[in-house]
Specification:
- This protein is an alpha+beta fold.
- It is built from eight helices and six strands.
- The protein has one domain (26-197): NADH Oxidase (3-Layer(aba) Sandwich), CATH 3.40.109.10.
- 41% of the residues lie in helices and 17% in strands.
- Strand 3 and strand 4 form a beta hairpin.
- Helix 2 packs antiparallel against helix 6 and helix 3 (68-89) packs antiparallel against helix 7.
- The protein is globular, with a radius of gyration of 19 Å.
Length: 217
């Protein structure tokens, strides 16, 4: 692979263009049911799978859910956990912080969006030894590696003109059960993917400035 060395001016131009592009990305909670080409989603997942990972173990699995009945089951299970969270588990401070976003336990987007991408972290790779016993080959820096991959996935889907939401109901064990995943895969995040519904609105939020998030030492 040949490294592409850019001029300082081209570097600045590309960096600023990328910044402006990502500034237009927003989390959407009101999706259209309009179909999305699967090859677009697949290309974004391939981009995510190019992420760096500990010892290049690539400890991730992306499960694309398009079956309507399965999406309904996921919604029902997620809403049960979310209702428990909003009504019993969440602290008053947490609910206060969520209030400006207008969220509650109802998650219709899990059924409306044409695709859900369930991202699983793979903590180890099972293998059978010659004597018939199971060996667990450990993966390294799994949370960090999968987090980087998810960030790339969100950027790739945004670049393709699609809307996303990062949904993390807690606990998420129901995802493994519904999708029939093996025990060495653990749910990491659930991402609805599609187009925003006509008239969809997003909360008016502000991001921290560069000076608030960066220090030079």
């Amino acid at each position: 692979m040949v490294f592409e060395r850019l001029t300082a001016e081209e570097s600045r131009t590309r960096a600023k263009a990328f910044l402006e592009h990502l500034r237009r990305r927003r989390t959407v909670r009101d999706f259209s049911a309009e179909a999305v080409p699967l090859e677009v989603v697949d290309a974004a997942i391939e981009a995510a799978a190019s992420a760096p990972s500990g010892a290049n173990r690539q400890p991730w699995k992306f499960v694309v859910v398009k079956d309507a009945a399965t999406r309904r089951r996921i919604r029902e299970a997620a809403e049960a956990e979310e209702r428990e969270f909003y009504e019993r588990r969440a602290t008053p401070e947490w609910l206060e912080d969520l209030a400006p976003l207008g969220t509650d336990w109802r998650k219709p987007f899990l059924e409306t969006a044409p695709y859900l991408i369930a991202v699983f972290r793979v903590d180890y790779a099972p293998a059978l030894l010659a004597d018939g016993t199971e060996h667990h080959r450990k993966n390294y820096y799994v949370a960090e590696s999968v987090g980087i991959a998810v960030g790339i996935l969100l950027c790739a889907l945004h670049t393709a003109g699609l809307a996303t939401l990062t949904h993390t109901p807690s606990p998420m064990e129901f995802l493994g059960r519904i999708l029939g995943r093996p025990r060495h895969e653990r749910p990491y995040v659930l991402i609805p993917v599609g187009y925003p519904a006509p008239g969809a609105r997003v909360p008016d939020i502000k991001k921290k400035t560069l000076d608030e998030v960066r220090e030079i030492v």
